Amino acid sequence: MRTMLIWPRPEQEMVPLIEGLEKGGLKIVYFVGDRTEHCNPTGSIYHDHYDAWDGKPAPALADVNIPPLSAKEIEESFRLESMILTMMNKHFDPAAVDQRKHTYYTMLAYWRHVLKTVQPEAILFPIVPHSLYNYILFELAQENKIPTLMFEETVFDGRLISYRDFRKSNGALQAALAYNLSRGVMPGDLSKEMRDYWEENRGSKRNISKPWFQRELEDRVSGRTLWKIRVRALLRSVSNGSTFRLVFTYLARQSKGNLTSEYGRVTKAADFSRAYVYFPLQFQPERTSSPQGGVFHDQLLAVETLSAALPRGWEIYVKEHPSQWLLRNKSQYNCVRWRGYYEQLARISGVRVVPIGTNSYELIEHCKTVAVITGTAGWEALLRDKLPLVFGWCWYRDCPGVHGVRSVDECTRALTNVQAPARHESNMAAFLKAFEQVSIRSNIFQSRDPKNAVTPEESATTIAQFILKELHNPNVQIKHHVP
């Protein structure tokens, strides 16, 4: 099977992954890697991830004259163009709109040419594609009916869910869920791992365990780690003679105001005696909103949609993501949080912007329900007997009680049914059991959880076996490396 491997991961993962795929009968004809050209299979075209992201061709195709696309070809992909322009908020954020468009048109022509040249029968991604070039490739694969396979990490460290198309549910998960619901599965039927998770996090008075990725992010941007980053920046400025410019730029930014000062001007303390929907903003730019939020990567649009459906007397409590001011642009105005963003948010009917330090678990505890694009707060709501509204495509979308919403009418209907039914515990147990049965015991990103002893090499071997079973040979036996 001729396969494109779009997998920019470290060498220790790539070697066992590629060996496993090739031994299983896949012929890799195009490989996008992260400085792993020496891992490239014989006869395959190698393309560096960052070159591809910049719109540069693979060296093997650098001298090929690829003509521009016709107006008709570009117009046929207008939906893709809209999504790509939003994805360019990362990596291409300073670029003007026309510069973004021209870069996209060049990428679109290149990847159309690649598909015609290498004629793949399958395309593999480690996670939901969101780095411009790989999302273009994904959409072209859907258009040309080329099978794709990708994975998503979840709140369960060391457990992945797979998709052929992230906008469509995992069929095996749906089938297992339907079977478990028919059997009336209860928490006592779960594995020890899932039962322990349920008992630790279930109930309105529990502080839900932070997901592994949130703990890692907090480690990166707080305390000693944050000071190390600042000290390194200062030392660099001393070594290259830019200390004065660094200090001047910092003071100039402070004098002009920033996101934190604007946010502070529009906040109002939460009143837990009021009826409200809790809407935590998602960190941006990131794949969890683009592409997984679709048009609702525009979170103002999501809040406006929710506002138009709000029952009389209800409010929407909106809180900024705690990492939004810590990564990339810090508290500076930028293309995803521009000057006036929070003021515009606060003017939406029924919206109360609450201080960023307000406890999220308390906000979930006292709300009528939670609304998210794809965020973890929706899952946390389910654990506290609230039925969330979800605007995008998240890993828990098939859990009974999740309201998938994409319009005012759908929000209106969902807001009349936000209290968990008596069978909610059984429904949750059925979903957790199905997830336990279908998920892959592996990681895409290396775990820092001491409880998860699965090595990157073991993860890659398991993923290779799963890919072969899913795409090539259903008789392949998957060896799960259980910590």
Molecular structure report:
- The chain is built from 19 helices and 13 strands.
- It folds into 2 domains: 2-170 and 440-472, no CATH class; 266-425, Rossmann fold (3-Layer(aba) Sandwich).
- The longest helix has 22 residues, at 97-118.
- It is globular and about 65 Å long.
- Helices cover 43% and strands 11% of the residues.
- It has 483 residues and is α/β, with parallel strands linked by helices.
Helix-strand blueprint:
Elements: E1 2-6, H1 11-23, E2 27-33, E3 45-48, H2 49-54, H3 71-75, H4 78-87, H5 97-118, E4 122-124, H6 133-143, E5 148-153, E6 159-163, H7 171-183, H8 192-201, H9 212-221, H10 223-240, H11 243-255, H12 259-266, E7 276-280, H13 299-308, E8 315-319, H14 341-347, E9 351-353, H15 360-366, E10 369-372, H16 376-383, E11 389-390, E12 403-404, H17 408-414, H18 424-438, E13 440-441, H19 456-472
Parallel strand pairs: 1-2, 1-4, 2-3, 4-5, 7-8, 7-10, 8-9, 10-11, 11-12
Antiparallel strand pairs: 5-6, 6-13
